[in-house]
Amino acid sequence: MILSSTPARADGHVLQVETGLQQLMGDRALYLQILRRFRQRYQDSANQARTELMAGDAAGAQRIIHTLKGAAGMIGAQQVYLLAANLEPACAGPSALCMGPLAQLEQALRSLMG
Fold this sequence. Notes:
The chain has helices spanning 17-23, 28-42, 45-54, 58-75, 78-90, 95-113. The protein is mostly helical. It is elongated and about 40 Å long.
């Protein structure tokens, strides 16, 4: 994961460490622990949401995206957070309309995890 205290660039590949640390009242050790957990738990979230959508379970996909959104906000992963926030309500519609935004989310997660 990229650790930087700079603001997110337009391409969104920067993890906003200061934002994440503010969420945890500056506890760096806890922040690093949460980053490790995020990597373990959420790296495949977009694929899991896609699987739910393809199975016709829009509510399941929304739950996955909602959980990812909250976790991304907690660590300061703004691009992932914003993409998930936009995708979450879209999951209630036709699944075909969600695939493009879901691919964007998947790419943002890959960049964050890389």
